[in-house]
Amino acid sequence: MQAWRVHRNGEPSEVMELEETDRPSPGPGQVLLEVRAANINFPDALLCRGQYQVRPPLPFTPGVEICGKTEDGRRVLATPALPNGGFADYVVADEAALLPAPDALDDAEAAALHIGYQTGWFGLHRRAHLQAGETLLVHAAAGGVGSAAVQLGKAAGATVIGVVGGPEKAEIARGLGCDLVIDRRSEDIVAAVKEATAGRGADVVYDPVGGDAYAKSVKCIAFEGRVVVVGFASGAIPTPGLNHALVKNYSIVGLHWGLYNTKDPAAVRACHDELTKLAAQGVVKPLVSERLPMAEAARGVQCVADGTSTGRIVVLPAGGAR
């Protein structure tokens, strides 16, 4: 089979190599899956760089989430077992963690429903307890993680303010349903949020960026607001001033979705059931900006690494448009 392999750490476009290799063999409790679509996530870029919290032994195949087909023909969502990730023709995954692919979504859309939307749902509902009528501020609103949070925020009845970089991404964020879009390259985020909320600020901030995005968020957070720390796509990890959190009376909550797989797998399945219902109703639909053949996977991962992508880029091993 074909698989993208990383033999040394570095930029994805430089270290990912497409090779012929043996199919992985399932271990106890695992199943072999044919990869129908593999969604590209920012952690895939971090894996290539050797900067992710999990560092699989070299060589390895990146790709942390897929839509695949079991030997008995079921369409499922899975997180492949590293070091044999999803940018391959076949993967192995834990059978107990497989989730049925929603009928309302094609393979590429289904592959993109998993980690990003689960992260959004747990972040907004379990960690931030977002309520209808509140104001939600989403950074990188046109990206894969941010676009999921925008849709889930609207589904929850929130007023959603999206922050993006550039007019093209602003147009995408509007199309996703943002009530207000702020272009961080030409507008003052803090002033715009305060103006839009009559000085109150955002009740919930969803931050997968870190760095300057976090610093500006806490300047326009509402009384009893909640900042959900999702990731650090900017490369800069904030150092929160706890005295500031005390004086302004807001909460900083972390979200590592992967922990729920081991700490509370029942909650993951319940979340998937809810996401499946929302997909069937047309309330959420992953924004798939590109569907790449296998040969272009490294380019796709580099786009995500560089922050130039919008929505989700999905790799289709068979090269089809499914």
Order of helices and strands: EHEEHEEEEHHEHEHEHEHEHEHHEHE
Strand content: 25-35%
Major sheet characteristics: 7 strands, mixed
The number of helical elements comes to 12
Task: Walk me through the structure.
This protein has 322 residues and is an alpha/beta fold. Helix content is 33%, strand content 25%. It has helices spanning 12-15, 42-49, 107-111, 115-127, 144-155, 167-176, 189-196, 212-217, 242-248, 258-263, 265-280, 297-306, and strands at residues 2-6, 16-20, 30-39, 65-69, 75-78, 90-94, 99-100, 135-139, 159-164, 180-183, 202-207, 221-229, 251-254, 288-293, 312-316. Strand 11, helix 8 (212-217) and strand 12 form a beta-alpha-beta unit. The radius of gyration is 19 Å and the shape is globular. The protein starts with a strand and ends in a 6-residue tail after the last strand. The model has no long low-confidence stretch (mean pLDDT 95).
Can you give me a brief rundown of this structure?
With 322 residues, this protein is α/β, with parallel strands linked by helices. It has 12 helices and 15 strands.
Q: What descriptors fit this protein?
A:
single chain, alpha/beta, six-stranded parallel sheet, 12 helices, 15 strands, globular
Task: Please describe the topology of this protein.
Layout: E1 2-6, H1 12-15, E2 16-20, E3 30-39, H2 42-49, E4 65-69, E5 75-78, E6 90-94, E7 99-100, H3 107-111, H4 115-127, E8 135-139, H5 144-155, E9 159-164, H6 167-176, E10 180-183, H7 189-196, E11 202-207, H8 212-217, E12 221-229, H9 242-248, E13 251-254, H10 258-263, H11 265-280, E14 288-293, H12 297-306, E15 312-316
Parallel strand pairs: 8-9, 8-11, 9-10, 11-12, 12-13, 14-15
Antiparallel strand pairs: 1-2, 3-4, 3-6, 3-15, 4-5, 5-7
Helix pairs in contact: 2-12, 4-5, 4-11
